[in-house]
Amino acid sequence: MTAPMASLLDDDRPDEGVLWRWVWASVRPVLGYVFVATGLILLLTAYLGVSREVLVAKQLPYLVSGGLFGLAAVTLGSRLLLIEDLRRDSGRLDRLEKAVVELHAALLTRPDAPDTGASVPGATANGHEKVEYLLALAGSQSFHRQDCPMVAGKSTAETLTASAARSKGLKACRMCQPLVTGV
Ligand SMILES: [Zn+2]
User: Fold this and answer.
1) What is the pLDDT of residues 113-142, one digit of tens each?
2) Across 12-26, 123-137, 161-175, which has the greatest mean pLDDT?
3) Are 143 and 178 in contact (CB under 8 A)?
4) Total-model pTM
5) Which parts of the chain fold into alpha helices (H)?
């Protein structure tokens, strides 16, 4: 722990953000519980204070400080816990999506998978077995195989070759992976 801290102190400015992000990342998971616990203690204090005081005027300070701040702390705490939960969920989704993409790639590169050049009807009909015609949707950042479900039934799809797609700066679709078997 001493070495990273020393390097943090050496070049002061830019690494300050890294330090605080690290502090935040390590505090974040427990912060919600801390807020909820603090809020419950405040509420309990307020309840005990109110129940001891007979005069309404003397109950008010307990209600305001303990009651309001207690409620606010509990609300904030449970919201933080919820955010933390959602963050974990989205991490799980990312991993799941990655796994599906890898599985898809593995299936497509199987030796018995259909040859992409021959599997594209337009390409064989024109007698261009070597050239795979790809599709790109207008305004989209990626290009697809002709049989990709992402472009199925889309009338705005534009036919283009792989080199044309690359020169336009388009990225290969992650679902159909047009360049996996090489073009
Ligand atoms: Zn696609």
Assistant:
1) 555 544 444 444 444 445 678 888 888 888
2) 161-175
3) yes
4) 0.39
5) 2-10, 12-52, 56-62, 69-108, 116-119, 121-125, 162-167
Strands laid side by side in the 171-172 sheet? 157-161, 133-137, 142-144, 171-172
Six-digit token string for 113: 């998978």
CA 4 to centroid of ligand 1, rounded, Å: 44
Residue 10: both structure tokens together: 């050496």
What is the Å distance from ligand 1's center to 86 Cα?
A: 28
CA of 154 to the centre of ligand 1 (A): 12
Backbone angles phi, psi at 70, to 5 degrees: -60, -50
Tokens read off for 97: 């999506």
172 CA → ligand 1 middle, Å? 7
Rounded to the nearest whole angstrom, what is the distance from the C-alpha of residue 141 to the centroid of ligand 1?
11
